[in-house]
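WARN no homologs supplied; continuing
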Amino acid sequence: MQRKIVRFVEEENLFYRDEKILVAVSGGVDSVVLLDLLCKMEVECGVAHCNFHLRDQESDGDFEFVKTLAKEKGLAFYSVDFDTKKYAAENKISIEMAARDLRYNWFEQVRETSEYKYIAVGHHADDVAETVLINLARGTGIHGLSGIKSKLGKIIRPLLPFPRKQLLEYAKNHSIDFREDRTNAETDYVRNKIRHQIMPVLEEINPAIRATMTENVQRFREVEQIYNRVIEENRLHLVFTRENQLLISIPKLKELLAPVSHLYELLSPYGFHHRDVRKIAESIHGISGKLFYSASHQLLRDREYLILTEISEENNNEYLIADEEAKLKLPVELKISFLDRTPGFQFPNSTKIACFDANKLQFPLTLRKWKEGDSFHPIGMKGKKKISDFFIDQKFTLQEKENTWLLLSGNKIVWVVGHRMDDRFKITDNTTKIYRLELV
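OK structure emitted
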């Protein structure tokens, strides 16, 4: 085992011998054997132990055992107590998920503050097989079939080549004591159901099921690498950004094989699940205007693009602009100036610049979002037009509507900022003073 773990560490590039490793030790055979093997490799280790208080006195016994083990080996010891049940209830998650979140967050805190390079955990070959079966039962893509990674960020798993049976044999042959968690024999947790009820049945079908699962995982990982490369190559043609938006080309998406898989890889980092992605994929064959939401983002099925934006709290504030102000930074950045009307004055040819007859304005001006029923007199047109109809005529997307601000004099709209001025405030031959605003 010692030769095999050294070879695995080198092949997987898990760490260098002179790097400090924080070892997560529960007291069970896997983590205790891991610590023993790393120490025999003369790696500088620290020991981290979590007391989840899920097994009363047994949990406290685990703590004392690991503390003594670290002292015997002359290693730094770190421990923490968690009220796991309370955390699970407050966050409405399972005990398993709560324990996972708590321990990994704490491990990372210790790693950073005590200057360890990596966190070593005791996952082994049986865990890989069980994880794949759990993922299959719950529903998964190719990533869920590739098992547990040997290295992910700052987490390393040096024991992945070894089945639990081999770890037990190593502990016996080297007279290594460990703690047996009685809950491992129970079937209240999903992983234990797989371990004690499903795996024995699979072993009847294939006595070498664990080795077979390991081989399968290796093949799945190679397929995953091919899959990831294709996704990234197609991303270059599918996606681009515009200001704070992510745009996905609908025509190009329709040309692809497996558009659902492409969409999932593009959107899952923003909180969209498989069921959401399937509905989004179906929408590309329908009419525009449909909206989809994750906890943090919204996606609009527009005419040519799927437009992804972060959900932010709606800004319903109103901002006053006094006549002496020369600059405004929030909610939009404007440069403001008063000019004398001269014979050579030229009207700017840009929607980002607006010029008004200053004597027609009533200060302070007001900047706010549009409301239902708002109307104005678009420059160059006779009569008034509803802002909502103006948006339709200009083919505004939902995001553009939500991000549009109006400038008002009294209760009259002066400017749909960045788009169209109001005819009632335009510069005429009688204008002597000009009020100029430039959208930065």
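The chain has a mean pLDDT of 91.
OK
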